[in-house]
Design a protein that fits this description.
Strand order of the largest sheet: 4-5-6-8-7
Radius of gyration: 14 Å
Structural class: mainly beta
Number of helices: 1
CATH architecture: Beta Barrel
CATH class: Mainly Beta
Number of strands: 8
């Protein structure tokens, strides 16, 4: 099964590939911890995208706009609050757009309140 870019609909890579793949050097597979920032916008086709910070497994960090490819991911990402974190893998292009391929783990970044 192939994943496609949410904007241009070009095929990015195969889900079954064993290592990170690129498409013409413009798109690469990344994994890391996504920290949700509140707010969203829509692309020219009306598909929503969100803001966040992606802490990569190699220690780097980048601010991204991220898309989600299906309804279940949309619901989970919209349910996240400001500062909540989730481990994800997906594809980023050179302009900073990130497509979430799958959710790896959910972590709430909230402090416990003791009464």
């Amino acid at each position: 099964m192939n994943i496609t870019c949410p904007t241009c609909r070009k095929t990015l890579t195969c889900y079954n590939c064993p290592k990170p793949q690129t498409l013409n050097g413009e798109t690469k597979e990344l994994s890391g911890t996504l920290q949700r920032e509140l707010g969203s916008k829509a692309d020219k086709n009306g598909k929503p995208f969100y803001f966040g910070k992606l802490d990569l497994e190699d220690g780097n960090e980048q601010v991204i706009f991220f898309f989600d490819p299906d309804y279940d991911l949309t619901v989970k990402l919209q349910a996240m609050g400001e500062g909540d974190q989730i481990k994800v893998s997906g594809f980023a292009n050179r302009t900073g757009n990130f497509t979430v391929k799958k959710l790896l783990e959910v972590e709430a970044n909230r402090e416990a309140v003791i009464f």
